[in-house]
Each structure stands twice: as structure tokens, then as C-alpha cells.
Design brief:
Blueprint: H1 9-17, E1 21-22, E2 38-45, H2 57-63, E3 67-69, E4 80-85, E5 88-89, E6 97-102, H3 104-107, E7 111-117, E8 125-126, E9 134-140, E10 145-146, E11 154-159, H4 167-173, E12 181-182, E13 202-206, E14 216-218, E15 225-226, E16 239-241, E17 250-253, E18 258-262, E19 266-267, E20 273-278, E21 287-288, E22 294-295, E23 313-318, E24 323-326, E25 330-338
Parallel strand pairs: 10-15
Antiparallel strand pairs: 1-5, 2-3, 2-4, 4-9, 6-8, 6-11, 7-9, 12-19, 13-25, 14-16, 14-18, 17-24, 18-23, 20-22, 20-25, 21-23
InterPro entries: DCD_C (IPR053811), DCD_N (IPR010550), dUTPase-like_sf (IPR036157)
Region (Disordered): 347-370
Biased composition (Polar residues): 350-359
Length: 370
């Protein structure tokens, strides 16, 4: 029986060095995924689309009458753009497939990013044996943005089998290599301590409002965010703190407004696992709680493997006007995944961008001292 899992960094490097992928530098390889860099070949299109079977993305762009975008142009909020990635797939091995998610920094400023592949009528999916170009669809939803060559907005994880845990493996995982879920005092939670469950191998996480800043609501602005800037923008021009009521236990989400919130639980992903945030069941409320999805091996483990997890930042949009959500309410869902091997370096050993977050955390573009 073949052992299955997601490819770690050392095997992703081998995939590149063996010539299966081009346009990827070592800095683009993460512990459990690849961050493909952007080119400046871009088009504005009238709306979202998928290529038909036996239709390349270039042919689909021509079909929908895409208009070329000049380098340095502002990508307007609410508009749809297609950009080619520098990474091409020469030929994916027959046993491998890929799937994608926006990067956390993209999700935290409400950019919707979807991958498009030639002849594939699905978003965010690279089938086994694929050969062709890769593109991303970019839709800024709250802030206008400016993109540049070489920046990275999404991540690709390559797997050789279904990597997801079932309930039995999930119960094992709670005792694996120092635990998975911790409360805010640092106490490790057991499988039996998880109150809410869909009984499908996932973990339901709850909303945390008892942080010094419980969350942020986006402010309408026409000021663009340049995506090559780090620790640059005054966050007060783009976000305001959320207002609590019911003695600090609840907040009200406005219809279609964008929020940065946090899980109450601290999540720790052992080095031999990865994680993906998944959509919540609509019975939990008419809202979206995340847009970025991947959590790398070693998240919350600590550089010396003594970590007790970190909360996950949530990128929340409500589709009900005046939706009231409260502290401790189920709001997010994660699924653990098997790694094919343990990566040589895990997330917390790589000077991570969000290695110090404790509670809601704005994206890397904003000044940290504000």
C-alpha cells in the first residue's frame, strides 16, 4: 500500500529541480506548499469565468474579451482581473495533483484569489499529469490594490493521495507530538474536550472576543494598497476596532462588511501534519469565516518545539444584515492533513510573518506599532 500525504519542502524542491515545474525559486518553497510568483501579463475581464474543457486560459481570456492591464495599474475593488503566474507545469507526475488557496496576507485585505489551469473547469485544482500554464483570478473586494512582478498571492499544495484525516486519525492526532488544540491558558485540549463537532474528521473552532483588541472592521477607502510594501500603511486609515456589546460577549456584523477576527482556541500543527481551513456548514450562519486556507506544518510549535499554539486569524464576511455572533460561538472549521514526510524546517523555524500573533492580526502591509 502506497503511503499518502502532502509533499514537504524537500520533495517540492526535488519536483522543481527535476524539471517538472519551472519559474519557482527557493524562496517560493514553504514547508508544505509553493508560493508561485506573479508575472505582469494581466487582463481585466467582465466577470469571473472558468475555461471550458479543451480550452486554455489564454483562449478563455480572448473569449471573454479581456483587456490588457499595464504594469502599475490600480486594480479596482469589485473588478475582476486575470494574471499569469511565473510557474509553469512542464508535466506533473501521474501520481501527483495540486490544490490551492489564497495566502493569508491576501485574505487579510479581502482579495479573492482563485487559480485557473488550462482545460480545467474548476478553480484551485491542478489534475494529475497536468501540463500547461497557470493563472490566477484576482478580485479586490474591499481595497483597491497595485500588484508587482514577483509578488505571491496564493499557495499550491501537492499531494499523492487524499490527505485528510478521518475521526479515528483525528483522535490519534490530538495526542501526537505535543498536542493540536490549546486553550488561552496554554492547557492542551483532548479529543473529548472538543464540544462542537461535525463528526467528519474536522475540528470546529470558536470565536474569541476576549483579546485586548477583539477584532477589526474594514473602512471604505479609495486609497490603494501596494502589495510590495511591508510594515508601511497606517492601519487606522483602513480598519477600525469592532464594538462589543452584551458586556463584551457579542458583536454585530453588518451585511457584506469585512472583518478581521480570531479563534478562541490556540492551534498547533505538528511538523508531520498540515492543515486547511474549510467552509462552515450554512446551518452555522450565513457568513464566510475565511478566505485564506492553508496552515503550514509547525504552526504554533515554536522554533524550539516548545510552543502551545496560536489562534487563527479569521477573515469574516456576513451575508445577513445585523448578524449577532458571540464569544465561544462555532465560527471556523479546520481539517488536518498527512504529510508525506516531515519537512526539514517547519513554519516556526522560518522567521514567519505571523509568528507572534495572539488574537486578531492585520496583514503584513500595515505598521505593527500602531
Amino acid at each position: 500500500m502506497e503511503y499518502g500525504g502532502a509533499l514537504p519542502s524537500q520533495l517540492l524542491k526535488e519536483l522543481v529541480n527535476s524539471g517538472f515545474l519551472t519559474g519557482v525559486e527557493e524562496k517560493n518553497i514553504r514547508p508544505g506548499s509553493i508560493d508561485p510568483p506573479l508575472t505582469m501579463e494581466g487582463y481585466r475581464v467582465k466577470g469571473a469565468f472558468l475555461p471550458r474543457p479543451k480550452e486554455t486560459v489564454e483562449q478563455a481570456i480572448e473569449r471573454v474579451e479581456g483587456v490588457s492591464v499595464r504594469e502599475g495599474s490600480i486594480l479596482e475593488k469589485g473588478c475582476c482581473y486575470i494574471f499569469r503566474l511565473a510557474m509553469d507545469v512542464i508535466e506533473l507526475p501521474k501520481r501527483l495533483y495540486g490544490y490551492c488557496n489564497p495566502k493569508s496576507s491576501s485574505g487579510r485585505i479581502d482579495i479573492h484569489v482563485r487559480l485557473l489551469a488550462d482545460n480545467v473547469s474548476r478553480y484551485d485544482y491542478i489534475p494529475r499529469g497536468y501540463a500547461g500554464s497557470l493563472w490566477i483570478m484576482i478580485v479586490p473586494k474591499t481595497f483597491p490594490v497595485i500588484v508587482y512582478e514577483g509578488i505571491t498571492l496564493n499557495q499550491i499544495r501537492f499531494c499523492n493521495q487524499d490527505t485528510r484525516f478521518d475521526e479515528l486519525r483525528l483522535e490519534f492526532a490530538f495526542k501526537n507530538r505535543g498536542g493540536v488544540i490549546f486553550d488561552q491558558s496554554g492547557t492542551m485540549l483532548n479529543y473529548e474536550n472538543i464540544v462542537h463537532s461535525d463528526n467528519d474528521g474536522s475540528i470546529l473552532l470558536t470565536l474569541g472576543l476576549n483579546f485586548p483588541v477583539p477584532g477589526f472592521e474594514a473602512i471604505e477607502t479609495r486609497e490603494p494598497i501596494e502589495l510590495n510594501r511591508v510594515d508601511y500603511y497606517d492601519p487606522e486609515r483602513f480598519f477600525r476596532p469592532v464594538i462589543l456589546f452584551e458586556q463584551g460577549k457579542s458583536i454585530i456584523l453588518r451585511d457584506n462588511a469585512f472583518y478581521i477576527l480570531s479563534t478562541k482556541e490556540f492551534v498547533r500543527i505538528p511538523e508531520n501534519m498540515a492543515c486547511e481551513m474549510r467552509p462552515m456548514d450554512e446551518r452555522s450562519g450565513d457568513l464566510r469565516s475565511h478566505y485564506a486556507g492553508f496552515v503550514d506544518p509547525g504552526w504554533g510549535v515554536g522554533s524550539d518545539n516548545d510552543g502551545r499554539g496560536r489562534p487563527l486569524t479569521l477573515e469574516v464576511r456576513s451575508f445577513d444584515n445585523g448578524l449577532i455572533i458571540c464569544d465561544g460561538q462555532p465560527i471556523s472549521k479546520i481539517r488536518l492533513e498527512k504529510m508525506l514526510e516531515t519537512p526539514k524546517k517547519h513554519y516556526d523555524q522560518m522567521n514567519p510573518t505571523y509568528g507572534q500573533q495572539s488574537g486578531p492580526k492585520l496583514g503584513k502591509y500595515f505598521k505593527k506599532d500602531k
